User: Which sequence fits this backbone?
């Protein structure tokens, strides 16, 4: 087995050789060798041979350079929610559109479920939106009760309520019918008559309906009414009763629709 040399033995041999080389011809040199640096370097080299996994520090005078690489930064994902610049309106129930904020104003169109229209103004006090007429050119007033508006409405102009128009005479009712119920008081002589009137409305600007029996006014009804019951306590057998119904407003009354009935 070959004996392993001590690193200190090798170091002594190296020092002797270095001293001999620096004194040529037996003369003493005035230049002193850098023994400390040489020893340090050699000792480090020998130590590296003994422990190859050792990482040497930089030699004297050297400057260590470190590269600082910052960790990768993820770019955040931005989700944009766009608000329509033009306000739009839809309705949950079909809604009429008029020239002003009431039934006395002319009907000019309607916004139906599933349709949308552009909003161009508002009247906050009456609760109306002014929209582009979905059925024609120009604008109209839409009641806001069933309306849903999307978009920015803050800059919409406030509209003044237009002057109240003079309404035309309303259309008369149509398909007037009567159902009679005759209860005998004296059979064949007198009856208690109940006349149930029904009709369909055609008017859109009526203030109400008036009901007549034999030309005499017997009832004044609110708008959109389509039925009325009249009780005549003692109707002679075979006596004919004529009932009439008309719509009316501040301008006047429509043509009167009539129908007759009798007991039994």
Assistant:
């Amino acid at each position: 087995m070959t004996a392993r040399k001590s690193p200190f033995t090798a170091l002594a041999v190296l020092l002797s050789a270095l001293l001999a080389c620096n004194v040529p011809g037996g003369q003493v040199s005035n230049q002193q060798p850098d023994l400390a640096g040489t020893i340090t370097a050699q000792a480090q080299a020998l130590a590296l041979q003994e422990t190859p996994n050792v990482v040497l520090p930089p030699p004297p005078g050297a400057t260590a350079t470190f590269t600082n690489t910052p960790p990768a930064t993820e770019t955040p994902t931005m989700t944009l929610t766009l608000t329509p610049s033009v306000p739009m309106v839809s309705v949950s129930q079909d809604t009429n559109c008029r020239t002003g904020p009431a039934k006395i104003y002319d009907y000019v169109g309607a916004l139906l479920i599933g349709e949308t229209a552009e909003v161009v103004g508002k009247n906050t006090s009456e609760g109306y939106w002014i929209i582009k007429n979905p059925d024609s050119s120009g604008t109209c007033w839409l009641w806001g009760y069933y309306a849903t508006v999307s978009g920015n409405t803050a800059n919409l102009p406030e509209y003044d309520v237009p002057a109240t128009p003079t309404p035309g005479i309303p259309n008369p009712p149509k398909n007037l019918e009567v159902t009679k119920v005759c209860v005998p008081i004296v059979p064949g002589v007198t009856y208690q008559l109940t006349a149930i009137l029904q009709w369909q409305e055609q008017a859109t600007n009526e203030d109400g309906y008036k009901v007549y029996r034999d030309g005499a006014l017997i009832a004044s009804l609110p708008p959109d009414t389509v039925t009325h019951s009249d009780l005549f306590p003692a109707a002679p057998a075979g006596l004919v009763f004529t009932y009439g119904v008309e719509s009316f407003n501040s301008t006047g009354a429509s043509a009167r629709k009539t129908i007759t009935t009798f007991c039994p």
